[in-house]
Batch of 2 targets.
Target 1
Amino acid sequence: MKKIVFVGTAGAGKTTLTAAFQNWMHDNGYDAVTMNLDPGADRLPYSPDVDIRDWVKLDDVMKDYGLGPNGAQVVAADLLALNMDKVLEPAQKLDSDYLLVDTPGQLELFAYRQSGSIVIEKLGLDDSIIAFVTEPAMCRTPTGFVSSAMLFASVNFRFDVPTLNILSKSDIVTGDELARIMEWSDSESRLYEDIMDSDAKASKVLSVEVFKALQEISAYSEMIPVSSEDYSGLADVYGKAQGIFQGGEDLDRRIS
Ligand SMILES: Nc1nc2c(ncn2[C@@H]2O[C@H](COP(=O)(O)OP(=O)(O)OP(=O)(O)O)[C@@H](O)[C@H]2O)c(=O)[nH]1
Ligand SMILES: [Mg+2]
């Protein structure tokens, strides 16, 4: 099974996109099953075929370890990694082309603790890609855009599997706003101009230099705007993912 792992900042839209993408795949005659790896998930808009909450639940971790929500998230992240073999057992019995994996919202726990790497390794480095999900609230300003690009790059480096750069909730921005974000995604000179025009002070030059460096070391990939509301862009995500899986190639990265 090919795995698409939705990773991203809290509230970016990973869970909604997992559901929307499965629906889109089914509507288009493709096969996909789902796995929830968020022990703190409350209600899900899809019925997970495999669910970490059958082994680890955030509420139980809080009670059992006498922890508050943040401490429990840390322990839950480690328990997630420790339970991956058990979680994968039912997954291996599923008969599908694609497994869509929804991850916890605490990006720093998943991406920077060892547990996230263990999870991705157990899922399989050769047949997994990460769909990094960011949202307009993170990318509306030029400096916010660069911060999101840095997060993308650190996830890409951390996991060492091909990584798609997805802008969720494209339906909540105006056409002009979306066009501007996509221009930054595409052109560092446009980003440079807009950073220089912005109110940001000391961070101005640094932002551009960081973005240039990310492009130069091939650590940045152009954004794919999507909406889980109107399903726009989901065909692009599928096309990119399929291209990577079929070609075995990495993303079409641009080096400036
Ligand atoms: N308009 C719009 N809203 C969206 C879209 N995707 C997600 N949302 C909303 O954004 C909020 C967060 O979405 P989730 O899918 O729960 O985000 P998440 O990344 O899974 O969140 P955590 O797991 O808590 O980190 C919800 O209120 C969703 O309805 C979208 O494409 N368009
Ligand atoms: Mg979620």
Target 2
Amino acid sequence: MPDPSEIVHRTCPLCEAHCGIAIEVDRDSGTVLTVRGDEQDSFSRGYLCPKAYGLKGLHEDPERLRRPLRRRGTDFEEISWEEAFAEAADRLREIRERHAADAIATYLGNPNAHDLGAILYGATFQKALGTRWRFSATSVDQLPKMVASSQLFGAPGRFAVPDVDRTDYFLVLGANPVVSNGSLMTAPDMPGRLRALRERGGHLVVVDPRRSETAAIADRHLFIRPGTDAFFLFSLVQVLFAEDGISLGPLEERTDGVDELRALARDFTPEATAAATGIAPDAVREIARELAAAERAAVYGRIGTCTQRFGTLASWLVDVLNALTGNLDSEGGVCFPRGAATPADDTPRKTGTFPFGRWRSRVRGLPEFAGELPVACLAEEIDTPGADGERVRALVTVSGNPVLSTPNGARLARALGRLEFMVSIDLYLNETSRLADLVLPSTGHLEHSNYDLVFDGVSVRNKAHWSPQVFAPAPDSRHQWEILAELAGRVNGASADDIHDLMIGGIARATGLEPDTARERGPEQILDLMLRGGPYRLSLEKLEAEPHGIDLGPLEPGRLPRILATASGRVELAPALITADVPRLRAALAGASDPEGLVLIGRRNVRSNNSWMHNVRALHKGRDRCVLMIHPEDAARLDLVDGARANVTSRVGEVTVPVSVTARMMPGVVSLPHGHGQGGAGARQSEAARVPGVNSNLLSDEADLDALSGNAVLNGIPVRVVPAAPV
Ligand code: SF4
């Protein structure tokens, strides 16, 4: 519980950076007075971004839901938790019995990764339903990176993270860490970390179709045509081989596939890829030589390299480059963090070829990966019945808004209307949950404790930080884990306690430790057991005594041999699943010509976090950020001026949006931020709806995927832009 000074220290749960914050509260009114960066925080040292102030707005937002809602015609009525749980469980059970478990689908949104209880109980809930039709935001985000890691290192969550504080050369593709503060690279105060890199004589090179905030502070920025990162990366590999720049370092004896890579890269000379990428051969050679010469270098690719047609190949080549230059698992290169709540013994429990495509989606045959199907096929799995009428008939969304976050949101919204039953566990009536039959709101972020379980695994420094609840939950409210445990129990005729006991029993067996029964059943008891069984032998009690977090030291080079989970026990630089996709890339290169027409990319704003914080006035106020960025040459050709409105059309949809004419865009490329487009009948987010902007996923195409992983293409969407008719 909070200390008497009324200042509570914890981490900000809003994005992957998980900065330490100090929240000053007024207990009498239950309000937040201030949110400051915690200067004593062992990791973030006082840094915070404007979104942190949104915690106050979220906590106090009168439109945040506090009671379960049941659809009544076009509106909703408040009901009791007992009614809500009984109805949800009865309907789900009935649909499962009448059809099959796969007639129920689940969708988990990004905020789940930021909530310990949701992480622990979400997976159990999905298992309890028994469905294989599981979807999440993963397949509009990092799925290609997970597929690449699973093949290179044997596990989808084994991400090589840039040792950004010790590197000398940082090559960044398709990422804007100055705004995001890192993704799959938890790194609060990226602006400061990048400044420090340059002050110690290091180099920052950014390759991006937009001169982003990160590109603006880089030593060098190169424009690249969207979707062509794999060409560029392969050219770097080709130059390294051609100029004898390969040096695998200590991993040489543990690495397979180098000769195969050499052969695969042969055709991708800088001259061969220049027309497609827009990057001159000399520039490619210079970067390859700099990478080879740098004592400590890290190549990092993120959302832009994942959400494109060759997302898995690009993600794979990022790690290939780190390996070929001796920077994989190396100080100042890319390393593998060690989470405090992971098993103490690094040795993987399972080794082998990580499974891929154990089942496929019914309509299009898209592959399962790590227990999930690509969300781009969710709508068709609902609106396209099979020969025997089989289709998805019920959906449970958990902290997600797929109508705004996944491709062809208009089709998905229509498909949701054809469900027999839909439950949304959500804080708001948003563009998706407004279509549900039942809406179950969980406690707000400040009303429950948290631990950054996922992001410890991608942190640029090993650390552990406990986040206590700031306010007691409102009367008769439920934490998200309580909702998930209750539903998981009821659909199988069990209780929430049964579910918890099952979970903690498994962890007790794995760790050989007894749970602390003085703690209540729930995520805290589970976490305590995981910490005690973890590599640093911590406990929740020890974390509670350290309100500013515990620094567990810099990333450790040399861990990889112990944690490799591949069948061979070696780094597989040329895994068959991935290299089988190279002919597709080669064919695209042969077909590449001077690009015609415009392509659309996304972008992120420091005051916005995907789609769900737009109702916080403190973040939403000010100028309209949902504008289409376009290069002056394109604007002149299309007769568009700054501030004019344009119609943007793709294969699947059309939006009308103001334009911002700027040389920060690569000619031929336009950019629209994601996460906008709030409003619509039934949604209750009046501040967000006041200046809604447009939903960029009305333009993204559910048929356009990274063919290997099934990840959605959100960057490089062909569009037509014309001046809008005057209003
Ligand atoms: S960068 Fe901003 S939103 Fe992200 S954790 Fe830090 S303060 Fe919160």
